[in-house]
Design a protein that fits this description.
single chain, mainly alpha
């Protein structure tokens, strides 16, 4: 395993421990599916830089040492039960960049997108990707935000869409060769993977 793979595995172990301890107002379905949680988080972190992963791993360690559950805080923010945790100005820029990438992906792959969260519209019992992301980012340290923002900006400059890379990881993990193959399958056009 590479150092990045080790960091991701370690992060997921810390997160899963915290996630399983979350007592949200409404039961979170993926708490009953830890393997699904790991799968999704592994894909999410697959596009992070080693520096950002190291910083976030340290955030998790420090939080654990202080008895703070970062995932409980994230879900409390998602449900608007607690005030803003971190008002770092990078959060809004990270959210804007990511939401633009997701909108681009939703336009190209509507059948995949329909299976996920709404992008910006919260509703009864439904949390948008934007609210989810912003709530999660508020639990990161300023250093992790800085490093993650740097990675996003570098990707933008190269014309990369990191959301597309996350989608690709997820569809490959589901047995498809490409995002388009998964999109076609969900549209009922083909059964090929």
């Amino acid at each position: 395993m590479t150092n990045i793979e080790n960091l991701i595995t370690e992060i997921i172990e810390y997160e899963l421990e915290m996630f399983l301890a979350v007592q949200a107002r409404e039961k979170v379905a993926c708490q009953e599916n830890p393997e699904g949680f790991k799968f999704y988080r592994r894909a999410t972190f697959s596009v992070w830089s080693e520096d950002a992963l190291t910083s976030y791993r340290n955030d998790l360690i420090h939080a654990r040492e202080r008895g703070r559950n970062l995932l409980t805080l994230k879900y409390a923010r998602m449900e608007d039960l607690i005030p803003v945790i971190n008002d770092n100005e990078l959060i809004d820029d990270i959210v804007d960049i990511t939401i633009n990438w997701i909108k681009e992906m939703a336009g190209r792959y509507p059948n995949i997108h329909k299976r996920g969260r709404p992008i910006e519209e919260d509703g009864p019992g439904i949390t948008s990707t934007k609210t989810y992301l912003k709530s999660e980012l508020e639990t990161y340290s300023d250093n992790t935000l800085k490093l993650h923002h740097k990675r996003l900006k570098e990707s933008m400059e190269k014309g990369e869409n990191l959301s597309e890379k996350v989608y690709l990881e997820m569809v490959k993990g589901s047995g498809f060769d490409s995002i388009q193959a998964a999109e076609n399958h969900l549209a009922g056009h083909t059964m090929d993977k």
